[in-house]
């Protein structure tokens, strides 16, 4: 009886793990677009005239991501996947950056981000201007 119960627990745990892993994979990355903006970065919709993060890695989010301020302070990992114009070599050798949402970008494509100049140039080049991304 103990052996059968132990095997049942192992099977139940394995099924739980597989279900959880499949759900994580479904929400892991979404696609969108990113642009960049330059100083001044204040005021921001999230923090008014408070200074933005000193590391320069922050962004404004499109309304669907911003969700009336619910995204303020949330971190997103942004990965450059190429230029929207099809320009080759749009991504740098470090195509991923993590940013904090500090502002709303009402003019951004949905879903999309307006990255700080520092964040954008970590994953792409200013001359590219608009890139396709994956984010989570």
TrEMBL record:
Domain Expansin-like EG45, residue spans: 32-136
Residues of the signal peptide: 1-29
Lineage: superkingdom: Eukaryota
InterPro entries: EGC1/2, Expansin/allergen_DPBB_dom, RlpA-like_DPBB, RlpA-like_sf
Keywords: Signal
Matches recorded under PANTHER family: EG45-LIKE DOMAIN CONTAINING PROTEIN 1-RELATED (PTHR47295), EXPANSIN-LIKE EG45 DOMAIN-CONTAINING PROTEIN (PTHR47295:SF15)
Listed name of the protein: Expansin-like EG45 domain-containing protein
Organism, scientific name: Sphagnum jensenii
